[in-house]
TrEMBL record:
<dbReference type="InterPro" id="IPR000421">
    <property type="entry name" value="FA58C"/>
</dbReference>
<dbReference type="InterPro" id="IPR006710">
    <property type="entry name" value="Glyco_hydro_43"/>
</dbReference>
<dbReference type="InterPro" id="IPR008979">
    <property type="entry name" value="Galactose-bd-like_sf"/>
</dbReference>
<dbReference type="Pfam" id="PF04616">
    <property type="entry name" value="Glyco_hydro_43"/>
</dbReference>
<dbReference type="InterPro" id="IPR023296">
    <property type="entry name" value="Glyco_hydro_beta-prop_sf"/>
</dbReference>
<dbReference type="InterPro" id="IPR052176">
    <property type="entry name" value="Glycosyl_Hydrlase_43_Enz"/>
</dbReference>
<keyword id="KW-1015">Disulfide bond</keyword>
<dbReference type="InterPro" id="IPR006558">
    <property type="entry name" value="LamG-like"/>
</dbReference>
<dbReference type="Pfam" id="PF00754">
    <property type="entry name" value="F5_F8_type_C"/>
</dbReference>
<keyword id="KW-0624">Polysaccharide degradation</keyword>
<comment type="similarity">
    <text>Belongs to the glycosyl hydrolase 43 family.</text>
</comment>
<dbReference type="InterPro" id="IPR013320">
    <property type="entry name" value="ConA-like_dom_sf"/>
</dbReference>
<keyword id="KW-0326">Glycosidase</keyword>
<keyword id="KW-0119">Carbohydrate metabolism</keyword>
<dbReference type="Pfam" id="PF13385">
    <property type="entry name" value="Laminin_G_3"/>
</dbReference>
<feature type="domain" description="F5/8 type C">
    <location>
        <begin position="316"/>
        <end position="463"/>
    </location>
</feature>
<protein>
    <submittedName>
        <fullName>Family 43 glycosylhydrolase</fullName>
    </submittedName>
</protein>
Length: 704
């Protein structure tokens, strides 16, 4: 690993990928790999969105190297609009149809089932009345039914293994799937905890010789402790004996494999391969921006698995591919900008060259969320070009873009115009027939507010070739995400209110205007020439809608001068602007706090994503507290100095929200003093934060 020295401390920088490169370009977890006919399929949880609540997705390939993504059509329940498609598994039935199962926790943690004549759908419900195949509280009260995997024995019987948080819930569950209906489980039982030591979730059954191998994930999926373990038995129901090698897959020392787990296994020509997820690098806070990898799984005998060596051979190396040479591989490339990540942990550049290095662990990312952004490839000489394939950061969202070509890098003609595109996919495939030395990709917009232009890989080919399946995801009905105004949208200053004697008319001086209405007890406090709002079980609520530019992953800055006489362990909300009840999932809610707890700085509805103060601002003193988010990193500044930071992808829900100063949407009232508050719909840098601190310092009684 290359280490940088930034801000006086060593930070993680660029990381060698090579042998440990993920096989999929994007954020996907809980992979189930199958081979139907001559096509490989990977069904996975779409990660990096509201506690892994992305679209139902499948990847497919013939050569195990070039993978294509498709958003499947899965009907929702009558009672709820499905958004959790967790840990899918699929079975080819004896009737030649395909049975898809996945977990959902919106109406209890249940496993639902679907059927189709195709491995990619469209899917129909197995139970028209939305009865789960495996319900919550099954096989016993309080048991969450998630992470189901199905195993077909030599006699044709199909067994299900499921359970999560099993160290709290008494062990994994096993039952037999009714092979006639494929929609219910019989003879369920729990597997005693001692038979699967240190478990967490993600049971997976396979058979080796006469032994039943029950593999599972232990530790925590949010951090480096996640790992793969196994036990074995002479029966699908056990009893199980813990494996000799434990764990068989875990984080390595150089962090090229971090938090590996929740896997499936592919058998190919007598060889075995473990397909699992691991954390992205640089690692997104909470560990739910995972990527899929594969390594060889070696058995010493039918009941002993060797420890997995990350970077070992994969099946695709021996499969002949119909995909010609990528003409852009390692070609020279330049860009309009690129993102330099600087946080407490990382000093990492998302370089333009990463878009042509052929790796799925690296990407080019623009410096901010403004558009357009462009990437130019120099092929070195005039070259015949017939196909360009672009892998954008998020396979489940659409990007609007255009591709151009040129002989001299100055005069450009259109290769493909996707400026009105509303179809998501990876790769995006564009065909023409031109001769050129230069190719330019211009990213014009994205489906979601606040996403940056970003590309894992862009590949150029001199001839056409067949894609394994002729399918395309449905166009989105939603237009592109809202854009920020790059302005100060909220501003209120107690000194100004006091000077104008307008305590009952609290006008917002920011660009969105409106009036702050008092809710509860809020008054003006003045001491030693400092004016401040005194919050006592009250809040200031803006009568204007929250700007759409703050939706989803929208950038922002909140800056405030506050004094908290007594710092509680929780609560003490300074500003909230999201609706926690819209989805009630991690990262769909943001709020700035000033307490001593784990969300003392920023609340995201889940302790794995919340951010605390590293150095808690002292009680009963004035502090300038600033939270910024630029679409990639949240940063907390206290008195002009960076206190904490974390990489995030947000899904802020603002549609029915109110902008509240001094309280959250459920109370959590601030119990101190606030001299001023400003909010921007973009991220201030450290220098701007320090300038703002001096400009708004309350002791100088300045009005902004």
């Amino acid at each position: 690993m290359v280490l940088g020295n930034v801000f006086g401390q060593k930070k993680d920088a660029q990381l060698p990928v090579g042998k440990v490169d993920p096989i999929l370009p994007g954020y996907f977890a809980d992979p189930t790999i199958k081979k139907f006919g001559d096509i490989y399929y990977i069904y996975a949880t779409t990660d990096n969105e509201m506690l892994a609540s992305g679209v139902p997705t499948v990847w497919y390939s013939k050569d195990f190297e070039h993978w294509y993504n498709y958003t499947m059509e899965v009907p929702s329940l009558e009672s709820i609009n499905l958004r959790n498609f967790w840990a899918p598994d699929i079975i080819e039935g004896s009737d030649g149809r395909y049975y898809l199962y996945f977990g959902n926790c919106q109406a209890g943690c249940n496993i639902y089932g679907y059927v189709s004549s195709s491995p990619v759908g469209p899917w129909e419900k197995l139970n028209k009345d939305d009865t789960p195949v495996i319900a919550h509280n099954y096989p016993r009260e309080g048991f969450p039914s998630l992470d189901a995997q199905f195993f077909t024995d030599d006699d044709g019987r199909i067994y299900a293994y499921w359970g999560t948080w099993v160290h709290y819930n008494g062990g994994y569950a096993v039952g037999e799937l009714d092979s006639e209906s494929m929609s219910k489980i019989k003879n369920p039982k729990n597997i005693p905890l001692e038979q699967t030591p240190e478990p967490f979730e993600a049971a997976y059954m396979m058979k080796k010789g006469g032994k039943y191998i029950l593999m599972y994930s232990g530790g925590s999926c949010h951090d480096e402790t996640y790992n793969v373990r196994y036990s074995y038995s002479d029966s699908p129901y056990g009893p199980f004996t813990p494996g000799a090698k434990k764990p068989i897959l875990s984080s390595n020392d150089n962090v090229t494999v971090h938090g590996p787990g929740h896997h499936s296994v592919l058998e190919e020509d007598g060889n075995y391969y473990i397909v699992y997820h691991k954390h992205d690098y640089p690692m997104t806070r909470g560990g739910l921006s995972r990527q899929v990898s594969v390594d060889e799984l070696i058995f010493e005998n039918d009941s002993t698995i060797q420890q997995v060596m990350p970077g070992s051979k994969r099946p695709g190396k021996s499969i002949k591919s119909n995909v010609p040479t990528n003409l852009a591989l390692n070609a020279k490339v330049s860009a309009s900008s690129f993102y330099q990540l600087e946080s407490h942990k990382y000093d990492y550049a998302y370089r333009p060259s990463f878009a042509t290095d052929g790796y799925n662990a690296t990407m080019w990312k623009a410096s901010d969320n403004s558009f357009p952004q462009d990437l130019t490839i120099d092929l070195g000489k005039p070259t015949r070009i017939k196909r360009i394939m672009t892998q954008f950061e998020f396979a489940g969202y659409y990007y609007q873009y255009k591709l151009e070509y040129s002989f001299d890098g100055k005069n450009w003609e259109v290769f493909a115009d996707r400026s009105k595109n509303r179809i998501a996919g990876s790769p995006m495939i564009d065909d023409a027939d031109v001769i050129a030395q230069y190719i330019k990709l211009t990213v014009l917009d994205t489906e979601k507010t606040g996403l940056l232009a970003a590309v894992w890989n862009i590949k150029v080919f001199g001839s056409l070739f067949d894609v394994p399946l002729d399918i395309e995801s449905r166009p989105s009905k939603q237009g592109p995400g809202a854009k920020g105004s790059h302005q100060k949208i909220v501003s209120i200053n107690a000194q100004e209110v006091l000077a104008k004697n307008s305590r009952d008319n609290l006008a917002n001086k920011g660009s969105i205007g409106g009036i702050f209405e008092k809710k509860g007890e809020v008054s003006i406090y003045q001491e030693d020439g400092v004016a401040a709002f005194d919050f006592k079980k009250g809040a200031l609520v803006l009568d204007q809608p929250v700007p759409k530019s703050l939706q989803w992953n929208g950038a922002f800055t909140v800056a405030t001068w506050v004094k908290n006489p007594e710092i509680s362990t929780e609560g003490e909300c300074l500003l909230s602007w999201c609706d926690r009840f819209k989805f009630n999932l991690a990262n769909s809610y943001n709020a700035l706090h000033y307490n001593r707890g784990n969300y003392g700085a920023v609340a995201h509805l889940d302790s794995h994503f919340d951010m605390k103060y590293n150095n808690l601002p002292t009680a009963n003193e004035w502090h300038h507290i600033v939270l910024t988010f630029d679409g990639v990193v949240e940063k907390m500044y206290v008195n002009g100095k960076l206190d904490n930071s974390q990489i995030m992808v947000l899904a802020s829900q603002t549609e029915n929200a109110k902008l509240r100063i001094g309280a959250s949407d459920i109370g959590e009232n601030f119990s101190g003093y606030m001299a001023s508050l400003q909010m921007y719909d973009y991220a201030l840098n450290e220098r701007d934060v320090q300038k703002l601190m001096q400009k708004t310092k309350p002791s100088e009684s300045k009005n902004e």
